[in-house]
Structures are given as C-alpha cells and as structure tokens.
Amino acid sequence: MKVAVYLRDEFTDAHREQIAVINDDARLDRLATRDLPPEPDAIEPQGSVVIAGFGRFGQVVGRLLLAQGHAVTVLDHDMETIEQLRRYGFRVFYGDASSPAFLKGCGLLEAPAVIVTIHDQDGIDEIVRVARSLRPDILIVSRARDATHARHLYAIGVTDAVPETIEASLQLSEAALVGLGLPTGHVIASIHEKRDEFRHDLQEAAGQAGQTATHAIRAKTLRGS
Fold this sequence. Notes:
Layout: E1 2-6, H1 13-23, H2 25-31, E2 49-52, H3 56-67, E3 72-76, H4 79-87, E4 91-95, H5 100-105, E5 113-116, H6 121-134, E6 139-144, H7 147-156, E7 160-163, H8 164-179, H9 184-208
Parallel strand pairs: 2-3, 2-5, 5-6, 6-7
Antiparallel strand pairs: 1-3, 1-4
C-alpha cells in the first residue's frame, strides 16, 4: 500500500509547525501524544506538488517546498513515517502510487510538478511512466541511482534526473574548492555549469541509444507554473 499526505494550499501557522516538526525529530515524540485528527472523508486536490517518498531525501525536498509556501501531496509506504505524520496533523490517504486512478485522485491532473525521491529503481521508473502518460506537460524531477539510470529516466520522459553519484561528486568538489580558498560565487557558478554539462550529456546519450525520445519540456519555476 502507498500513502498520500495532503496539505492545503494556504500557508498557515499549522504548516509552519509542520515544517518545524520535520526539522526537529525530538518533537515527533512529543507530538505523537496528541489525539489523532479526524479522518478526512475524501481527497480534495488543490494543485499541490506531488512528492513520491518521504524518507530523509524526500523530507528535505518537502521542507524546502513548505518553506516557500507550496502545498504538497506526499506518497510513502513506511508505516512509522505514516503514523508520525498523522499524529501531528497531516491529512493521510492510502493508495498505490503507480496507479493512474490513485494519482488522479491525489491531484496529479492539477499538480504543477511531481518529484520522485524513492530509492527503488523499478518504482521510480513506473511512477515516471504513469505520471508522464497522464500529464505530458507536467514537470517531473526524479532521483536517479546513477548515470545509467538517469539516461533511462530521460528516455522515458522525466524532465530532470538527479543521479546520486554525480550529485555527490559535485557537492564534494564544491566543498573542496571553497575550502581551498576559491571565491564561493565562482565555485557555485562552476558547479552549476558542470551540472548542466552532465545533464546535457545524459539527455543526448538517452536519445542516441534509440530509446523513446526525451520530452523536451521547458523548465519552469514551481511558482510560475
């Protein structure tokens, strides 16, 4: 079973508390003693960002989105995470994240973006395929296990893939260069340039492999989409 956690579009004090809780694991235990909120009767999609996976990887993404005032719909399968989220006020819905009907019910047709943060490669692939088939225009950003997986994701329709190995090497390089005394602004610009080169190479390789053509979707900011 998969789980969807839905937040309303309004960025309220309750949302600020949820962000604080995600930032402070110790508060989870204190908040877990509160009474469970009433179960919602139905999903009410309102154009929130869909995040598939709410482990440590997904929590960082969710925290940043919430901090910028974006509502999110989170899909997860970890029961401990589910219970914690329910206890401090998130709205929780169960379903299969690879199911077209469920994704529609969770607001995919109104969502500005889908962000895939789970670690299972087959699961990532299936979510990307289904989301792209339902929404040819949607922004899909996905975690990738490595460069080979990233090429595959570009081939099946992801807008942007983030290979764990490449991204880790870029972050390590950034820390090293700044530590060696290079200006931070120059280092950041160089890292961004190198990241764009990797992305271009992966997209080009996906096309040359004779797989399904990569969807060329102009990247938009979430606020502007």
